Each structure stands twice: as C-alpha cells, then as structure tokens.
Amino acid sequence: KAGVTQTPRYLIKTRGQQVTLSCSPISGHRSVSWYQQTPGQGLQFLFEYFSETQRNKGNFPGRFSGRQFSNSRSEMNVSTLELGDSALYLCASSLETGERAEAFFGQGTRLTVV
Amino acid sequence: KQEVTQIPAALSVPEGENLVLNCSFTDSAIYNLQWFRQDPGKGLTSLLLIQSSQREQTSGRLNASLDKSSGRSTLYIAASQPGDSATYLCARSNDYKLSFGAGTTVTVRA
User: Fold this and answer.
1) What is the pLDDT of residues A15-25, one digit of tens each?
2) H or E element that contains A110
3) Do A104 and B100 lie within an 8 Å CB cutoff?
4) What is the pLDDT of residues B55-95, one digit of tens each?
C-alpha cells in the first residue's frame, strides 16, 4: 500500500518567486492537511481539506494557499516567497475524521528560499 | 490557547534502558492523541494513536497512555535500542488539525 507522496522532495527558489507543492494521499483517504516545520517554530498547521473543502486554516498570511482535487490530491502554493518561508513542508492524509483519524505523513518537501 | 508541551527536550540513555517521554496539553477537548517518530530530515512516522475514549495503546515495545483529566500522555519504550534514536513528537487532534509539541530528541548509546 503506497504511502503519502509529496513532490518535489527538494526545491530551491529565489525571493519573490512562487512555488507549488503537491501531495498525493494514501488511496481512499479524503482528508489532507499541510504543516510547516522550521527549527524555530516547530510544526505549524497550514490548512486541512476534506472532499475539496477547506475546513480549517492556520495562522499564515494569504500568500499561502491550497486546494484539493476530486481525486483527493492536494496542492499548496506560496506566492512572493520570503527567506522565512524556507522550511520542510509536510502533508498528511487520514481516512476518517474525528477520533479514529490516524494521520499519516509524507516525507516532505524541503523548500529553500535564497 | 491550545498548547502541547513535551518534557524533556532531549534525553540520552544507554542501550537497554526504558524510555519515558511526557506530553501535556492544556485543553482536554481532544479527539485523539497521536505519537510520532521523526528521523533527521525525514517525515513523521505514526507510532500510536490513542482515541479520546481510550486510556492506552500498545504496539510491541511501545506503550502510550492518555489521561484527559490531567491533560497528560506518556510514551514508554521498553528496552531501548540504538535504532530508537530519533525525535518523538506528540500531537493532539481537534478542529480538523494536529497541534504538536516541540518534541523530545532521544539518543540511545550503544
């Protein structure tokens, strides 16, 4: 059974550019969420999607956006990149919502902004 | 404010010793509590999920307990091995998101 797949694994971008990261959940999982991990702030929640609907959003500027497609694959976009956006971006998927919702994470996309 | 705290931040033990990792949270309104392992530069691996209606879960050498009334969860790793060296994170679930602690970095010395 394939796990959560994130592409690309590594990215180097220049300040001011935009970037799109992709996440393919485990087959059958309809909930996809995104997290940013940095050494200073730890793991912070970005947003969560279920059946193409965003149900919750973290405290990030509007430059961070996401979407989910009908096949549950998700993308997140960061526009006008800043140096502080350098981080490991992690995607998680889960089969159900509520207390049985075990989250499974991908290997992440390492974004470096120069 | 929902907060998750993990103590200690780092732990070094000799091989064979039992590990006890602590996680506390400020809001008892949780769906579940999940423990993860993270190796350097990698994603998170789910270790155990404790539903809010449960008090503990076990998998092999791992046992996790949950006490909602006191807002605490503990992960026990029996007979530690060098391969257990990693960062361990706990996360509480509610409002369709996980709130993470900062993690405990464990080093098991051979």
Assistant:
1) 999 999 999 99
2) strand A109-113
3) no
4) 999 999 999 999 988 999 999 999 999 999 999 999 998 88
Strand, coil or helix: what is A6? strand
Dihedral sign, Cα of residue B34, residue A59, residue B4, residue B53: negative
| Chain position carrying tokens 């991990």 | A37
DSSP H helices in B1-110: none
Distance of alpha carbon B56 from alpha carbon B52, whole angstroms: 10
DSSP label at residue B102: -
**DSSP secondary structure string, B60-73?**
TTEEEEEETTTTEE
> Which positions in chain B touch A35 (Cβ < 8 Å)?
98, 100
CA B45 to chain A, closest CA, distance in angstroms equals 7
The C-alpha angle A82, B86, B84, rounded to 5 degrees, equals 165
Using CB atoms, pick whichever of B41, B53, B98 lies closest to residue A103.
Answer: B98
